[in-house]
Amino acid sequence: AQKVTQAQTEISVVEKEDVTLDCVYETRDTTYYLFWYKQPPSGELVFLIRRNSFDEQNEISGRYSWNFQKSTSSFNFTITASQVVDSAVYFCALKTGGGNKLTFGTGTQLKVEL
Amino acid sequence: DAGVIQSPRHEVTEMGQEVTLRCKPISGHDYLFWYRQTMMRGLELLIYFNNNVPIDDSGMPEDRFSAKMPNASFSTLKIQPSEPRDSAVYFCASRATYEQYFGPGTRLTVT
Predict the structure, then answer these.
(1) Is residue B57 within 8 angstroms of chain A, CB to CB?
(2) In chain A, at which residue ranges do the beta strands (DSSP E only) sit?
(3) Does A32 touch chain B (CB under 8 A)?
(4) How confident is the model at residue B47 (pLDDT cuts 50, 70, 90)?
Protein backbone atom coordinates (compact mmCIF):
# COMPACT_ATOMS: atom_id res chain seq x y z
CA ALA A 1 0.00 0.00 0.00
CA GLN A 2 1.10 3.54 -0.67
CA LYS A 3 1.18 6.36 1.82
CA VAL A 4 2.11 10.05 1.76
CA THR A 5 2.73 11.94 4.97
CA GLN A 6 2.77 15.69 5.27
CA ALA A 7 3.40 16.16 8.96
CA GLN A 8 3.15 19.95 8.88
CA THR A 9 -0.50 20.88 9.07
CA GLU A 10 0.04 24.63 8.99
CA ILE A 11 3.04 26.91 8.58
CA SER A 12 3.09 30.67 9.03
CA VAL A 13 5.95 32.81 7.77
CA VAL A 14 6.64 36.45 7.16
CA GLU A 15 7.08 37.57 3.59
CA LYS A 16 10.59 37.08 2.19
CA GLU A 17 11.34 34.20 4.52
CA ASP A 18 12.32 30.84 3.05
CA VAL A 19 10.04 27.93 3.88
CA THR A 20 10.29 24.17 3.36
CA LEU A 21 7.29 21.89 3.10
CA ASP A 22 8.01 18.29 4.02
CA CYS A 23 6.73 15.19 2.24
CA VAL A 24 7.53 11.60 3.19
CA TYR A 25 6.24 8.72 1.11
CA GLU A 26 5.96 4.95 1.40
CA THR A 27 5.78 2.47 -1.43
CA ARG A 28 7.21 -0.93 -2.26
CA ASP A 29 7.27 -0.20 -5.95
CA THR A 30 10.61 0.57 -7.53
CA THR A 31 9.01 2.76 -10.19
CA TYR A 32 6.88 5.60 -8.95
CA TYR A 33 6.13 9.26 -9.50
CA LEU A 34 5.87 12.10 -7.02
CA PHE A 35 3.91 15.31 -7.47
CA TRP A 36 3.25 18.62 -5.79
CA TYR A 37 -0.01 20.49 -6.20
CA LYS A 38 -1.00 23.95 -5.00
CA GLN A 39 -4.53 24.84 -3.87
CA PRO A 40 -4.87 28.61 -3.43
CA PRO A 41 -7.82 30.18 -1.58
CA SER A 42 -9.75 30.28 -4.86
CA GLY A 43 -9.97 26.49 -4.62
CA GLU A 44 -8.51 25.06 -7.81
CA LEU A 45 -5.76 22.43 -7.68
CA VAL A 46 -2.72 23.47 -9.68
CA PHE A 47 -0.06 20.99 -10.78
CA LEU A 48 3.45 22.18 -9.88
CA ILE A 49 5.92 19.40 -10.54
CA ARG A 50 6.41 15.69 -11.21
CA ARG A 51 9.45 13.67 -10.26
CA ASN A 52 10.23 10.10 -11.40
CA SER A 53 11.73 7.58 -9.01
CA PHE A 54 14.69 6.98 -11.29
CA ASP A 55 15.66 10.65 -11.46
CA GLU A 56 16.96 12.05 -8.20
CA GLN A 57 18.12 15.35 -9.61
CA ASN A 58 16.83 18.27 -7.65
CA GLU A 59 14.91 20.88 -9.55
CA ILE A 60 14.64 24.63 -9.33
CA SER A 61 11.98 26.77 -10.94
CA GLY A 62 12.28 30.41 -10.03
CA ARG A 63 11.69 30.71 -6.28
CA TYR A 64 10.58 27.07 -6.06
CA SER A 65 12.92 24.13 -5.54
CA TRP A 66 12.38 20.47 -4.86
CA ASN A 67 14.70 18.06 -3.03
CA PHE A 68 14.08 14.40 -3.82
CA GLN A 69 15.96 11.91 -1.62
CA LYS A 70 15.21 8.23 -2.09
CA SER A 71 17.38 7.30 0.91
CA THR A 72 14.94 9.05 3.24
CA SER A 73 11.82 8.63 1.04
CA SER A 74 11.33 12.36 1.02
CA PHE A 75 10.33 14.90 -1.61
CA ASN A 76 10.53 18.30 0.06
CA PHE A 77 9.48 21.61 -1.45
CA THR A 78 11.22 24.89 -0.67
CA ILE A 79 9.93 28.35 -1.46
CA THR A 80 12.64 31.00 -1.37
CA ALA A 81 11.76 34.57 -0.48
CA SER A 82 8.11 33.72 0.11
CA GLN A 83 5.38 36.08 -1.04
CA VAL A 84 1.79 36.59 0.06
CA VAL A 85 0.64 35.00 -3.22
CA ASP A 86 2.28 31.76 -2.09
CA SER A 87 -0.37 31.39 0.60
CA ALA A 88 -2.18 28.16 -0.22
CA VAL A 89 -2.56 24.53 0.73
CA TYR A 90 0.15 22.40 -0.82
CA PHE A 91 -0.39 18.71 -1.49
CA CYS A 92 2.22 16.06 -2.12
CA ALA A 93 1.06 12.99 -4.06
CA LEU A 94 2.38 9.61 -5.17
CA LYS A 95 1.57 7.39 -8.13
CA THR A 96 3.08 3.95 -8.59
CA GLY A 97 4.42 2.89 -11.93
CA GLY A 98 1.71 0.39 -12.69
CA GLY A 99 -1.16 2.26 -11.08
CA ASN A 100 -3.43 5.08 -12.12
CA LYS A 101 -4.50 6.49 -8.78
CA LEU A 102 -2.85 9.33 -6.93
CA THR A 103 -2.27 8.93 -3.20
CA PHE A 104 -2.43 12.40 -1.67
CA GLY A 105 -1.01 13.67 1.58
CA THR A 106 -3.27 15.62 3.88
CA GLY A 107 -1.80 18.92 2.74
CA THR A 108 0.14 21.74 4.39
CA GLN A 109 -1.54 25.12 4.80
CA LEU A 110 1.06 27.84 4.16
CA LYS A 111 0.28 31.36 5.31
CA VAL A 112 2.60 34.13 4.23
CA GLU A 113 2.03 37.41 6.03
CA LEU A 114 3.31 40.89 5.44
CA ASP B 1 -5.20 25.62 -24.28
CA ALA B 2 -8.43 25.09 -22.43
CA GLY B 3 -8.06 23.24 -19.17
CA VAL B 4 -10.55 20.89 -17.60
CA ILE B 5 -13.98 22.51 -17.59
CA GLN B 6 -16.56 21.83 -14.91
CA SER B 7 -20.10 23.04 -14.53
CA PRO B 8 -21.81 24.34 -12.59
CA ARG B 9 -19.24 26.04 -10.36
CA HIS B 10 -21.71 26.27 -7.51
CA GLU B 11 -24.82 24.25 -6.84
CA VAL B 12 -27.25 24.64 -3.98
CA THR B 13 -30.03 22.11 -3.77
CA GLU B 14 -32.47 20.68 -1.29
CA MET B 15 -32.18 17.26 0.21
CA GLY B 16 -33.79 14.64 -1.97
CA GLN B 17 -33.18 16.43 -5.25
CA GLU B 18 -31.13 15.04 -8.11
CA VAL B 19 -27.81 16.75 -8.80
CA THR B 20 -25.76 16.40 -11.98
CA LEU B 21 -22.19 17.63 -12.21
CA ARG B 22 -20.51 17.96 -15.58
CA CYS B 23 -16.94 17.73 -16.79
CA LYS B 24 -15.12 18.29 -20.05
CA PRO B 25 -11.58 16.88 -19.94
CA ILE B 26 -8.58 18.26 -21.77
CA SER B 27 -8.64 17.16 -25.37
CA GLY B 28 -6.45 14.13 -25.97
CA HIS B 29 -6.45 12.98 -22.36
CA ASP B 30 -7.63 9.40 -22.09
CA TYR B 31 -8.04 9.21 -18.32
CA LEU B 32 -10.73 11.02 -16.36
CA PHE B 33 -11.04 11.11 -12.57
CA TRP B 34 -13.77 12.33 -10.20
CA TYR B 35 -12.78 13.43 -6.68
CA ARG B 36 -14.59 14.79 -3.67
CA GLN B 37 -12.96 17.13 -1.17
CA THR B 38 -14.20 17.81 2.35
CA MET B 39 -12.52 19.19 5.44
CA MET B 40 -13.08 15.95 7.31
CA ARG B 41 -11.97 13.45 4.67
CA GLY B 42 -9.67 15.47 2.43
CA LEU B 43 -9.42 14.48 -1.23
CA GLU B 44 -11.17 11.21 -2.08
CA LEU B 45 -11.09 9.50 -5.45
CA LEU B 46 -14.61 8.46 -6.39
CA ILE B 47 -14.19 6.85 -9.80
CA TYR B 48 -11.96 6.94 -12.84
CA PHE B 49 -12.36 6.17 -16.53
CA ASN B 50 -9.94 5.12 -19.23
CA ASN B 51 -11.01 5.64 -22.82
CA ASN B 52 -14.56 6.32 -21.60
CA VAL B 53 -14.76 3.01 -19.71
CA PRO B 54 -15.15 3.03 -15.90
CA ILE B 55 -12.13 1.25 -14.44
CA ASP B 56 -12.44 1.65 -10.69
CA ASP B 57 -15.55 2.87 -8.88
CA SER B 58 -14.58 1.57 -5.46
CA GLY B 59 -14.59 5.09 -4.07
CA MET B 60 -18.20 5.81 -4.92
CA PRO B 61 -19.84 6.17 -1.52
CA GLU B 62 -23.12 4.42 -2.27
CA ASP B 63 -25.70 3.64 -4.90
CA ARG B 64 -26.97 7.19 -4.86
CA PHE B 65 -23.84 8.14 -6.81
CA SER B 66 -23.39 7.27 -10.47
CA ALA B 67 -20.99 8.45 -13.17
CA LYS B 68 -20.97 8.18 -16.93
CA MET B 69 -18.65 9.06 -19.75
CA PRO B 70 -20.62 8.80 -23.01
CA ASN B 71 -17.73 10.14 -25.10
CA ALA B 72 -14.15 11.33 -24.82
CA SER B 73 -15.11 14.92 -24.16
CA PHE B 74 -17.85 14.66 -21.56
CA SER B 75 -18.54 13.04 -18.21
CA THR B 76 -21.24 13.39 -15.58
CA LEU B 77 -21.45 12.61 -11.89
CA LYS B 78 -25.00 12.24 -10.64
CA ILE B 79 -26.30 12.11 -7.09
CA GLN B 80 -29.87 10.94 -6.63
CA PRO B 81 -31.27 11.59 -4.09
CA SER B 82 -28.88 14.12 -2.60
CA GLU B 83 -28.28 14.36 1.14
CA PRO B 84 -26.70 17.10 3.29
CA ARG B 85 -23.63 14.91 3.86
CA ASP B 86 -22.93 15.07 0.13
CA SER B 87 -22.00 18.75 0.53
CA ALA B 88 -18.42 19.06 -0.71
CA VAL B 89 -16.29 20.32 -3.56
CA TYR B 90 -16.27 17.88 -6.45
CA PHE B 91 -13.27 17.93 -8.77
CA CYS B 92 -12.83 16.41 -12.17
CA ALA B 93 -9.30 15.74 -13.43
CA SER B 94 -7.87 14.38 -16.65
CA ARG B 95 -4.55 12.84 -17.57
CA ALA B 96 -2.58 11.89 -20.61
CA THR B 97 0.64 10.36 -19.25
CA TYR B 98 1.50 10.98 -15.61
CA GLU B 99 0.20 14.15 -14.01
CA GLN B 100 -3.47 14.86 -13.51
CA TYR B 101 -4.87 18.28 -14.37
CA PHE B 102 -7.79 19.40 -12.27
CA GLY B 103 -10.82 21.44 -13.11
CA PRO B 104 -11.93 24.36 -10.95
CA GLY B 105 -14.35 22.20 -9.01
CA THR B 106 -18.07 22.33 -8.26
CA ARG B 107 -19.02 23.45 -4.78
CA LEU B 108 -22.16 21.50 -3.85
CA THR B 109 -24.33 22.50 -0.94
CA VAL B 110 -27.26 20.28 -0.01
CA THR B 111 -29.66 21.85 2.48
Answers:
(1) no
(2) 3-5, 10-14, 19-21, 24-26, 32-39, 46-52, 59-61, 64-69, 74-79, 88-96, 103-104, 108-113
(3) no
(4) very high
